[in-house]
Specification:
binds beta-D-galactofuranose; Rossmann fold; six-stranded parallel beta sheet; 13 helices; 2 domains; 331 residues
């Protein structure tokens, strides 16, 4: 190849790269995929409502990098299913190689997933589960066993309060219709049906956010103040509830007052557990990036991933948690 041809080829590639938008590695690389051959992944994320969610997003972004051969199209849906459906349609239009969906709710996905299937784009569901009329509309799912998380919390409650004849419970639910809320709620309701002395005296959703958690707890306290246990379906709502109880001069934590049970075991949640503010915290592991990549690698190699994959999870008791256990955690 003579020098003039080489110069013009390099110039063309530079101009092509420069002309692409910088806001999506997927889009930029899509313009030059033939030159770079990246695996383009469209990821529709619920939002940024909690520490858990932000850790989940970070895990995906740290995994699907150009250096590792991926172009990532990331879309934050601000906790609205309509935005997720728009994002999936965008991924279809851009002909991504894989769609990863972290569904805000379980219902309402059939139509858009039929379009993805018609376009020949595999869909990997992560974190919360979806309910569809046809299981072939998604390739596989990886996430937590939310009912098991609820059962773990309830077993701790049964052990801790076995000598109490009555137990008044305030139930702060996550986003209604999400698998995390459904499973954790089912666990509590199963426990209440087994323990005649347990009374769920208050129940409402804080939508997994700290702001709503504070508002809901303020309303709870305006209606009833003899709460023994706050069963709170994630750490961020628990933080909001703590603010409300402090403002109302209601004691909480391992030293007396309201016993708080939480889920996620985020770094901040575990610090609160070690401080005795949260008495029991059930892990919900957000580090799905490597798990999703393993699935994509399997498919690239012509293998069929497991349809359902559960993540192993543990729980933390304020009475036994150590700083080392907190420091060792990746989020
Ligand atoms: C659980 C996840 C939930 C977390 C919340 O897998 O879906 O959503 O428990 C997050 O913190 O908002």
């Amino acid at each position: 190849m003579n020098k003039a041809t080489l110069f013009f080829r390099i110039a063309f590639l530079v101009l092509t790269l420069a002309s692409c938008s910088e806001n999506d590695t997927g889009k930029k690389k899509e313009m030059t995929r033939n030159a770079t051959n990246l695996v383009v992944v469209g990821f529709s994320q619920v939002g940024a409502e909690s520490d858990w969610r932000r850790a989940n997003t970070m895990s995906m972004k740290e995994t699907f990098t150009e250096e590792k051969g991926y172009g990532l199209l990331f879309r934050d849906a601000q906790q609205k299913q309509s935005n997720q459906i728009v994002a999936i349609r965008e991924f279809i239009q851009k002909k991504v190689d894989y769609i990863v969906l972290a569904p805000v709710t379980e219902q309402g996905w059939d139509e858009v997933l039929r379009d993805a299937k018609a376009a020949g784009i595999p869909v990997i569901v992560v974190d919360r589960m979806i309910q569809t009329s046809d299981d072939e509309l998604y390739t596989c799912w990886v996430g937590s066993d939310f009912r098991k998380e609820g059962d773990t919390a309830v077993l701790w409650m049964e052990k801790t309060f076995r000598d109490k004849e009555t137990l008044t419970i305030a139930h702060m639910q996550g986003s209604l219709g999400s698998s995390a809320q459904i499973g954790r709620t089912e666990g509590l309701h199963a426990g209440a049906s087994r323990n005649a002395g347990w009374k769920i005296v208050l129940s409402d959703t804080g939508d997994f956010t700290q702001v709503r958690g504070k508002e809901v707890m303020e309303r709870f306290l305006s209606e009833f103040r003899e709460i023994d246990v706050l069963y709170c379906e994630n750490d961020n709502m628990a933080f909001g509830a703590m603010q409300a109880m402090e403002n109302a001069h209601i004691q909480y934590g391992s030293n007396g007052g309201v016993t708080i049970i939480s889920f996620d075991a985020t770094h901040a949640g575990l610090e609160a557990t070690r401080a005795g503010k949260i008495s029991f915290n059930v892990e919900c592991n957000p580090l799905h990036g490597p798990r999703v990549e393993k699935i994509i690698r399997q498919m690239l190699n012509g293998e069929t991933p497991n349809k359902i994959s559960y993540v192993d999870e543990i729980a933390f008791d304020a009475a036994t948690i150590t700083q080392e256990a907190i420091d060792r955690r990746g989020y």
